[in-house]
């Protein structure tokens, strides 16, 4: 990923895109959530890796995920860690267990943080080259 352009105002951390995780970041730019899916045992996993963490098979394909899940853990930050950072404090980062099994971390938006909250992925186009997955309460309607 390239540096964020001055117009975007995104000054947060940028992902290290590799040949292993590039399909994940490309799909996010298209507002899709994908993960490697094992052709041998059927498990989906994140973060992407070269083999299935359950059966060690290297036979996998990228499969689209529903983006629906449940908050299983969270932390609320009350301090700004990046100068002119991407988050307004306080903000919550949640571990979400997706319906398909993988766990994904992301900022929780539009909700009071709570373990057990049913959430869905939403997409934040922070620059021309970068879209981040965030989570909001399931069924939340964008009123903009």
Could you please describe the fold and organization of this structure?
With 144 residues, this protein is mainly β. The chain has one domain. Helix content is 6%, strand content 34%. The protein has 1 helix and 7 strands, in the order H-E-E-E-E-E-E-E. The longest helix has 8 residues, at 22-29.
Summarize the topology.
Blueprint: H1 22-29, E1 34-38, E2 60-64, E3 68-77, E4 91-98, E5 103-108, E6 118-125, E7 131-137
Antiparallel strand pairs: 1-2, 3-4, 3-6, 4-5, 6-7
Report the sheet with the most strands, covering strand number, pairing sense and barrel closure.
Answer: 5 strands, antiparallel
The residue ranges in which pLDDT falls below 50 over 5 or more consecutive positions are 1-6
Helix content: under 10%
Instruction: Give the ordered list of helices and strands.
Output: HEEEEEEE
Distance between the termini: 29 Å
Which radius of gyration do the C-alpha atoms yield? 16 Å
Short description:
With 144 residues, this protein is mainly beta.
Which key terms come to mind for this protein?
single chain; 144 residues; mainly beta; five-stranded antiparallel β-sheet; two-stranded antiparallel sheet; 1 helix; globular; disordered N terminus
């Amino acid at each position: 990923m390239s540096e964020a352009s001055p117009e975007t105002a995104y000054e947060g951390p940028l992902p290290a895109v590799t040949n292993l995780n590039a399909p994940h970041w490309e799909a996010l730019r298209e507002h899709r959530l994908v993960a490697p899916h094992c052709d041998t045992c059927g498990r989906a996993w994140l973060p992407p890796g070269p083999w299935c963490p359950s059966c060690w098979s290297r036979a996998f394909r990228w499969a689209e995920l529903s983006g629906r899940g449940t908050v299983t853990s969270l932390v609320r930050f009350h301090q700004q860690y990046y100068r002119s950072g991407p988050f307004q404090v306080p903000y919550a980062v949640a571990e979400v267990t997706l319906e398909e099994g993988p766990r994904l971390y992301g900022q929780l938006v539009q909700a009071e943080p709570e373990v057990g909250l049913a959430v869905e992925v939403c997409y934040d186009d922070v620059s021309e080259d970068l879209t981040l997955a965030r989570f909001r309460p399931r069924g939340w309607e964008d009123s903009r």
